[in-house]
C-alpha cells in the first residue's frame, strides 16, 4: 500500500482518543495529520486549508462535542467541496448532523473499537483504491473514558446546602408561575405553527410521502428540482429505503450493467433522466440493466446478493480496476 495522507477532523475534547487512533492508523501505513501538528505562530485557517487540500481522505470523529463544533463543520464542508472521501466514525452516542446522516459511518459504539477500527481501515483502503488489508488484533485500543471524573467534584458543605435547596425551590415556583401566565400564548403559537407546517405540504409531496417508494421520491425530484424545499427530504427518504451495502461491477470495458437515473454533471448541477455515459460519482442513483451480483463489503467470500434488472441503488464510492469499474452501493431489500 502506497502512503496515503489522512486528515483527522475532531473536537479538542476527544484529543486523547484521537491520539490513540492516529498511532494505530500510522501502524497501518497511513500518513496522518491532525491539528496537533500545527506549529506555534502558524496561521491556523491557512494550515487547515492546505492540509485538507493535500489529504487523500478525511476521518471525521463523531462525538457530542464534535457535532456541535463550528470548526469541525467548516472542515467537513470544505472537504466535501473538494470532493474528498469523508469517513465518519461514531465514538459515542450523539446526533449526527443532517448533511452527514446520508453518509455511511462506522459505529464504534456498536462494533466496538477493534472491529470498528478494522472496518475503518478497509473503508479507507476501498475509497483510496487500495487493497484490503488484515488488521492485527489489538492494533487500536482507545483510552479509558474520563467522563467519570465529573462525578468526583466536591459536594457542597452542609452549611450551604439549605440555601441551595431554598434557591432551587424558589426557581421552580417562579418557572411554574411563568408557565401558567403564558400557557395560552404558547398554545396559540403552537397551533399556528402546526397550521403553517400543514400548509407547506403540497399535494405532490404528500403523495410521495404516502407512497413511500424510491420511484415516488425520484418522480418528485424530477418534477420539482434541487431547489425545492423538500428536495433533501426526498433524498433522505430514498436512502432510508436503501438500508443495505454491497459492492458490484458497474461496467467492464464496453459492457455496462447499470444506467443512471439521478446524477450531477461536471459543474455540480443536478441532471435528470438523460444518461451521460460517464463513470458514476458518489451520490448517483443507478438502475440495474441486467442481474448484478453484489458482494458483502466486509466479507468478500460471503454469498452474493443479486440486484435484479430495474432495481435501483445509490453510489457511495467508485473504484477502478483496469477496464472494470466497481461501485460500493446502498440498495433496498430484495
Automatic annotation (TrEMBL):
The chain crosses the membrane at residues 160-179. Residues 2-128 form the TIR domain. Pfam families: TIR_2. Keywords: Membrane, Receptor, Transmembrane, Transmembrane helix. InterPro entries: TIR_dom, Toll_tir_struct_dom_sf. The lineage of its organism: Bacteria, Pseudomonadati, Bacteroidota, Flavobacteriia, Flavobacteriales. The keyword Transmembrane helix applies. The keyword Transmembrane helix applies. This is Toll/interleukin-1 receptor domain-containing protein.
